[in-house]
Amino acid sequence: MAQSKGFFGLRKGSTKSLTFSTLDGKQITKDRVYEVKNPRTESQMRQRMLMTTVGAAYKMLKSIADHSFEGYSSGMQCMRQFNSRNLNRFKQAAAAKGSVAFNEYKDGDINPLPFILASGSLPGFVFSFDGESNLQIVGEKEDADFATAEGIYAALGVQRNDLITFCTVIGEGTTLNGVYSYKAERFNIVRLYCDKSGAVTKPADAFTISTNNDQASISMSTAGNAITIKTGEADFGAVIQSRKNDSGWLRSDAVMIVNDTVIAGVKTANQLDTYPVGTELILNNGPMANQGDAGAAEPKPGVSPLTYTVPYGGTKQIGISNPNSEAVTCTVKTGTEYCSVTNAGLITNTNSSGSDASATIEVAIGSTKFTVNVTLEKDNSGLE
Questions:
Q1: Which of 28, 81, 204, 310 could form a disulfide with 349 if both were Cys (CB 3.0 to 4.6 A apart)?
Q2: Helices H, strands E: what count in the chain?
């Protein structure tokens, strides 16, 4: 891969031998690849599992993750930080085959993992789940003053104009045949803006509170020298501290924590087994339309065609295929006055109504049944 600057500016697209793209305002030139090998080795599938897991997480967490890494511009740079840091974080776990809830094959929904959600120089918070699965932070200071905004900020270790952002995911996890899947219902964001001063009646009065949806909630309480701030029920989440200075926005480190009850019994090996390791070729035991279905290859009974026209006084033989020599029964279901049929499938036209008539015949081959539609022509012998 080479970086270059073309005479006509930055280029995108391909020529016969080269591919052009841009990255951070620079021209990237690579040899054009026409054929991509896809051996689907276990190592390759582990990497695909990692990329699927991290990609699905970024899609869900993008409203935070696209600007949560201090020192990197919002958008593409922060996305690359989220992806690269989390791919490196979970690479060893994927190889170890422990109990990490990686995404199963082709699963595009976020799974509960301790993703790196933010990074920066601020001290941040220690956050945890309480006994009711609420994400919480606890601030404590000797001789704490919870009657003023300044006293509350001091107990929490924040400054005026800081932001405290609770980020949580709630959903439902299920395990089927040993494979875990998770369906996220909501990504809840609650932001506390530390913009008040002076006396407050209750802790919440020290903040301007904003949420991203009507179901995101926050509660605050004090006891002794401690203040507790907690969200509603969550499966995994993190709390981020933000502060603006002369050079831009500062963040705190924030790695999501996972409620253990949500991922109980997860086996990484079972998640990896859903990926098609080395099985795309038929002669290498690759997938087929009727994979593992022995009955699909067995000969099956049939009737063809399913429609017949029988001249007056004549006969027609139903095309019956009975490869397994099962019992055959043919029965006229409608139009019994116009025709008869033998169990061998021979139809006889007995129509004397003076006009064409129709009938249906049921052909039962063992337990399999077919319906045959028959047109019985009228007697045309008297026509000149």
A1: 310
A2: 4, 25
- Residue 26: name the closest of 4, 52, 49 by CA: 4
Per-residue pLDDT tens over the stretch 220-260: 999 999 999 999 999 999 999 999 999 999 999 999 999 99
The CA-CA-CA angle for residues 299, 315, 332, to 5°, reads: 65
Topology of domain 302-376 in CATH is Immunoglobulin-like (2.60.40)
Q: Which residue did the predictor score with more confidence, 316 or 17?
A: 316
- Of residues 167, 368, 178, 170, the one with CA closest to residue 265: 178
pTM above 0.70, yes or no: no
> DSSP assignment of 254-305, as one string?
EE-EE-GGGGTT--HHHHHTTS-TT--SGGGT---TTTT-GGGGS---EES-
Rounded distance, CA 232 to CA 213, Å?
A: 13
The domain spans of the chain are 2-31, 42-272, 302-376
Question: What is the per-residue pLDDT for 327?
Answer: 96
pLDDT mean over 271-275: 88
Single out the residue of 264, 227, 255, 253 nearest to residue 136, CA to CA.
227
In whole angstroms, what is the distance from residue 111 CA to residue 61 CA? 11
Rounded (5°) CA angle 179-181-184? 170
Residue of 134, 113, 257 lying closest to 184 (CA atoms): 113
Euclidean distance between CA atoms 18 and 30, whole angstroms? 6
Which residues fall within 8 angstroms of residue 225, CB to CB, at 6 or more apart?
Answer: 140, 141, 142, 143, 144, 155
